[in-house]
Amino acid sequence: LVKGVFKACCAVVRNDINVALFILPHAVVEVLRSTNYSSFIVEEITAVLQSTERINSDIQTEEVTFIDKQDLSARSHGSHLFELSAQAVFSILDHVTRWGRSPLPSGGSLVKERHIRENKIAAEFLTKIPQKLCAVSSLRCRAYARALLHFEAHLRDSCNNVCDSESATFLQRLFVEMDETDGVSGVVAVRGVEPTPETQLKLLESTGALQDASACYER
């Protein structure tokens, strides 16, 4: 039945991106449920997130002397498409998470065994997704709450809750973007290092110390 529905939607998907984005998470769940292609999906997701990071980095760091408006527009369009791709990935991860956390249905032992098996499939799939890469891509897409969620998972699973200098730098940048002055102050205190001028300026502006911020601009 599910296969028939997806097949019937093929023609629409080619011409309506919204339908494709709606169907994609459901299609991924069906693939995880009935096939052994989870590694392929993980590779695709990782490739999309890495591309998002690379394209945004190129646009932000490239030195432009004589700006070609057409080239700049094409790059911005490419960045927008990659951000949409990242958002599609996030919708997949959310859908798989909900699938894996669905409540135990009523029924016999076969129904319960299937439910346990599907929860295990979802959990194993999610553990293969690089949380740090998700956090970086979320930050670049300005999904700050999601970035914090994924980075906390990265610290918990990969760093044994230890926040090294690189992690502290990322958290400091994230809290600056979120206008979380307490978070920035906490990270600065933990690091024991003077904040960068940009971070200090953001702190002053967010706390209403506009005169100090103006003096910081003058320096």
Automatic annotation (TrEMBL):
<feature type="domain" description="Serine/threonine-protein kinase ATR-like M-HEAT region">
    <location>
        <begin position="6"/>
        <end position="189"/>
    </location>
</feature>
<dbReference type="GO" id="GO:0005634">
    <property type="term" value="C:nucleus"/>
</dbReference>
<dbReference type="GO" id="GO:0004674">
    <property type="term" value="F:protein serine/threonine kinase activity"/>
</dbReference>
<dbReference type="InterPro" id="IPR050517">
    <property type="entry name" value="DDR_Repair_Kinase"/>
</dbReference>
<keyword id="KW-0808">Transferase</keyword>
<dbReference type="GO" id="GO:0006974">
    <property type="term" value="P:DNA damage response"/>
</dbReference>
<keyword id="KW-0723">Serine/threonine-protein kinase</keyword>
<keyword id="KW-0227">DNA damage</keyword>
<dbReference type="InterPro" id="IPR056802">
    <property type="entry name" value="ATR-like_M-HEAT"/>
</dbReference>
<protein>
    <recommendedName>
        <fullName>non-specific serine/threonine protein kinase</fullName>
        <ecNumber>2.7.11.1</ecNumber>
    </recommendedName>
</protein>
<keyword id="KW-0418">Kinase</keyword>
<dbReference type="Pfam" id="PF25030">
    <property type="entry name" value="M-HEAT_ATR"/>
</dbReference>
<keyword id="KW-0539">Nucleus</keyword>
